[in-house]
Design goal:
The protein is an alpha+beta fold. The chain folds into 2 domains: 34 residues; 130 residues, Immunoglobulin-like. The protein has a 4-stranded antiparallel β-sheet with strand order 6-5-10-11. The longest helix has 31 residues. The chain is rod-shaped. It comes from Eragrostis curvula (weeping love grass).
């Protein structure tokens, strides 16, 4: 007579789980793991693209003062400028930071003054203002440019170009040159 308790004729499941309950529990854990993994991926995508993390701050530059452009002293000038920079951070979840950069003031393509932009951070959804003081020493001007500058200074129609470049958003969300802007400024 054959022993009923003998498991020789019964085939065991391939997953190693003996009980139907255990198989259902394992399937539920697998489904939960897939849902959790997909949720984490969606959350990461929302944080990066939906929160403005890739947005670059907006800038404005205003000329608040200058001196040393007296072109009557010869064909060289040693000017200095005072620029007020305004930075607005559009990001909702993180600060916009820069490791610094450079500013150049030019007149008709000739660099008159230059300087460094210090590193700074603008908290999320806020505005920061700071002053830049670019200057030049012994900048040579051609005779024609010298006359034109003197004439425009007398009539109050002198325009200069301020170019500002910021390198590396400190959080590395943007390319190596995080910002490059040109601002037409009028000397009055």
């Amino acid at each position: 007579m054959a022993n009923i308790d003998d498991d020789e004729g019964v085939q065991k499941p391939a997953d190693g789980l003996d009980d139907a309950w255990e198989r259902r529990m394992q399937r539920a854990r697998d489904v939960q793991g897939c849902i959790l993994g997909a949720s984490i991926i969606v959350l990461m995508l929302v944080c990066v693209f939906g929160t403005g993390a890739t947005e670059v701050a907006s800038f404005s530059v205003k000329l608040t003062g200058f001196k040393g452009l007296n072109a009557t002293l010869g064909n060289t000038v040693s000017p200095s400028f005072k620029l007020k920079v305004r930075v607005e951070n559009p990001r909702r979840l993180q600060a916009w930071c820069s490791n610094g950069g450079e500013v150049v003031i030019s007149y008709v393509g000739v660099a008159l003054a230059w300087g460094q932009v210090p590193g700074f951070c603008v908290p999320r959804k806020e505005v920061r203002k700071f002053i830049l003081l670019p200057w030049g020493r012994g900048v040579g001007l051609s005779e024609d440019l010298h006359r034109r500058l003197a004439s425009e200074l007398l009539t109050g129609t002198t325009h200069v170009l301020a170019e500002m470049k910021l390198f590396k958003d400190a959080y590395h969300w943007t390319p190596s040159e995080a910002y490059s802007g040109r601002f037409q400024l009028m000397l009055a």
